[in-house]
Design brief:
The structure is a single chain. This protein has 342 residues and is of the alpha/beta class. 41% of the residues lie in helices and 17% in strands. The strands form 2 sheets. The protein has a 7-stranded mixed β-sheet with strand order 3-2-1-4-5-10-11, sandwiched between helices. Strands 7-8-6-9 form a 4-stranded parallel β-sheet, with helices on both faces. Strand 10 (304-309) and strand 11 form a beta hairpin. Helix 1 (16-29) packs parallel to helix 10, helix 6 (176-184) packs across helix 12 (330-338) and helix 7 (199-211) packs across helix 9 (248-260). The N and C termini lie far apart (57 Å). The relative contact order is 0.18. The structure holds 6-O-phosphono-beta-D-fructofuranose. 6-O-phosphono-beta-D-fructofuranose binds at residues 11, 126-128, 170-172, 223, 241-242, 274. Residues 11, 126-128, 170-172, 223, 241-242, 274 line the site of 6-O-phosphono-beta-D-fructofuranose.
Length: 342
Amino acid sequence: MKKIGILTGGADCPGMNSVIRAVVRKSVQEGCVVTGIKNGWNGLVNNDMRVLDLRMTSGILDRGGTILGTSRMVSPLPTETMSAIYENYRRSGIDALVAVGGEDTLKIALDLYVQFQLPIVGVPKSIDNELSGTDYAFGFDTAVNIATECIDRLHTTAESHHRIIVIEVMGRHTGWIAVQAGIAGGANFMLVPEFPVDIDKLCNALQERNRRGKMYSIIVVSEGAQIKGHFNPRAESPDDHHSRSPKIGETIAKLIELKTGCETRVSVLGHIQRGGTPTAQDRLIGTRFGVKSVELILAKQFGKMVSLKGNKIQCVDMSLAVSRRKTIDKDLYYIATAFSDI
Ligand code: F6P
């Protein structure tokens, strides 16, 4: 194995640069060269790549985003796009590829592996943490920490004004960020896609808190949360990344004000959760994933995704990672409900 290619696809997230740096370091140590493919799969479609060396990847460990750039592409790709990727890959002289990404990027990686036997290894990234086959995807820990800090800050303003604050966090299909940041930040209610909420029960619980003398409440809502009897387009359309549909946080806040008469504000954290410096944990996982991905390539273990199980770095079939979503841990959810009154 002489030439290893790497690309980062889908939504950017903190820790991507840690993976790139680790792949380059480990490859150089093993006598390989690395080609960085720009802007995800688009770089292979447009032949946009450049050599990555130690100097270019030094000093990037603490940088958010990705020095390679990224783009969104969704499987299945049109036949001509798949062929262009395959042809440009062949002409590039790259011997094997590391694809760093979430569900969409890894599905395309799997399609290329199955259709053209392209030698690919996947690295899971997702602030939503919904990829199966791994306990954690990198980027998630940073998002949880950012959301927790925001919840702490919103607590003090909610308390001062005796208001309800609805904090909308990311998580189109799973409520990992909402539950973990909600527990860590002491939220009063956590609403997640996996458990649709009864809005009347929620309003009763909010009023009950007021009767007990708690004149403010903090509600953390995943963007894909469901209200029983209401449609949430962000959760239900299969490719809703770019949707600018009304946000669930706003819908919930309006319903609460209408039903309880309590003054309610909404704070949508949005892309703040994806930007900036990765936590130590995400730098560490990203680095371990990057090194493991090169080891898998050298061992010719293609069609695999690196994964974290407990504290061990392992690998699983890429097909397992994308076959179904990892929904929130039920035990964790029950802990969350112990602190909420619905
Ligand atoms: O990484 C996944 C995610 O963060 C979702 O939770 C969110 O819906 C989506 O990306 C938004 O991405 P963008 O606005 O960059 O398309």
